[in-house]
Design brief:
Elements lengths: L1 H13 L7 H12 L6 E5 L4 E5 L5 E2 L3 E5 L3 E5 L4 E2 L4 E2 L8 E2 L8 E5 L8 E4 L5 E4 L10 E4 L6
Antiparallel strand pairs: 1-2, 3-7, 4-5, 6-8, 9-10, 11-12
């Protein structure tokens, strides 16, 4: 019995709290705060861990998100993320959008983007790649094709 109690205590101490995923947010909000509009889960900068409470939903400006410090405060998006729309704590704990990777065949980074816009990719023309649009696809869908050099 004592061993079981020790295991339960160690498990509780070792548990690292994470904010709920989008699919679980509503359930957690209704259980914790009896209202979705009051539930907030954000990173506490002073403690460097996530914390939830019932302070109520807040918004921040484009290109940022909110953190606890100990109250609401603006924060830059983490590397690899961006926020092109107003951030709200209702259902979110960090910048929503994941930046693109320019790792497709023939793609390289043109611009690293900012906290409010995505990375821009371009064709690596130094390796013979060009932008090619197939007439059978929607205008916004582009494919990178390798130029084949034919010798005479």
């Amino acid at each position: 019995m004592a061993l079981l109690l020790i295991l339960i205590i160690e498990t509780a101490i070792a548990y690292v709290f994470k904010c709920p995923a989008q699919a679980e947010w509503r359930f957690r909000a209704n259980v914790s705060c009896l209202s979705e509009d009051k539930y907030v889960c954000l990173l506490n900068l002073l403690e460097q861990k996530y914390q939830d409470n019932c302070l109520g939903s807040e918004r921040s400006s484009i290109g940022s998100n909110l953190v606890f410090q100990p109250l609401f405060n603006l924060a830059e998006c983490k590397a690899g993320r961006y926020q092109p729309i107003v951030f709200t704590t209702h259902g979110n704990s960090g910048c929503i959008f994941l930046k693109s990777n320019c790792d497709g065949d023939g793609q390289i980074v043109y611009n690293n983007g900012t906290s409010n816009n995505d990375i821009a990719c371009r064709c690596d023309y130094t390796k013979g790649y060009v932008l090619y649009q197939n007439q059978n696809t929607v205008a916004s869908v582009y494919h990178l094709k390798r130029i084949v050099h034919v010798s005479e």
